[in-house]
Amino acid sequence: MTYLSGKKIVVMGVANKKSIAWGCAEAMETQGAEVIYTYQNDRMKKSLQKIVSEDAFLVECDVASDESIQSAFSQIKDYAGEIDGIVHAIAYAKKEELSGNVTDISRDGYALAQDISSYSLIAVSKYGQEILSENSGIVSLTYIGSERAIPNYNMMGIAKASLEASIRYLAAELSPKKIRVNGISAGAIKTLAVTGVQDYQKLIQLSEDRTPDHIGVTIEEVGNTCAFLISPLSSGIIGDVIYVDKGVHLS
Length: 251
Ligand code: NAD
Known about the structure:
Blueprint: E1 8-12, H1 20-30, E2 34-39, H2 42-49, E3 58-60, H3 66-80, E4 83-88, H4 107-128, E5 132-142, H5 154-174, E6 179-186, H6 200-209, H7 219-230, E7 241-244
Parallel strand pairs: 1-2, 1-4, 2-3, 4-5, 5-6, 6-7
Helix pairs in contact: 1-7, 3-4, 4-5
Bound molecules: nicotinamide-adenine-dinucleotide.
């Protein structure tokens, strides 16, 4: 039995087949959902077109721009009417803010990382809520670097702490409208975004060393939890951040 049959879910942040968002999209399709994809720019559109089916609905959405987000959700409304969920799997910080000293983070770099990696969830929720159905879900992706000082994760750790607080505040605001907002704290996975962190191999190694079988969590495992959190099966979970890291957070 599939538990997302007939549901329409917007997935934001697929860059390629290694993206966590791709694991989420595939899991939701397996559960019977139709996935609507957003992409950042033309380069990402080309990359996305190579991996999605020909009839998939793709919409440009650069989260740096309110106009772009508003226009994306207006196009999605015209196409789908209502939607049943949004996966926000988007983050960005300049390379120089993901190495060295936290005291060297620039004012501009701080603002940019917070804007794309944290504020964007608020902006997406603002426009998304207008077309989200009752009993729908919003899920965003975070990392344990929000709670612990992980070497070189620096600016992104600070942005993820802000993202997690945003998840809780958004959840409190939107739950009376029957929209649940939650987060997944995923273990380190080799994707395009993670390679921006200096010595990112050590992050991946850390995640593999601490799992019981020394195999790091996969995008499929993160995707399955995401599909569950989007679905009404998780109706009791509101404003939470769930670890999907195969136990890395335990030690
Ligand atoms: P990824 O590079 O595959 O995905 C990042 C996505 O962010 C890309 O699709 C990119 O186009 C998008 N993006 C960046 N700036 C954007 C903008 N201005 N507008 C629209 N989209 C924009 O990497 P990923 O690791 O799959 O990242 C997805 C999420 O998962 C991120 O929030 C990341 O921090 C989080 N996460 C990743 C890991 C990991 O180890 N890879 C662990 C925990 C959490």
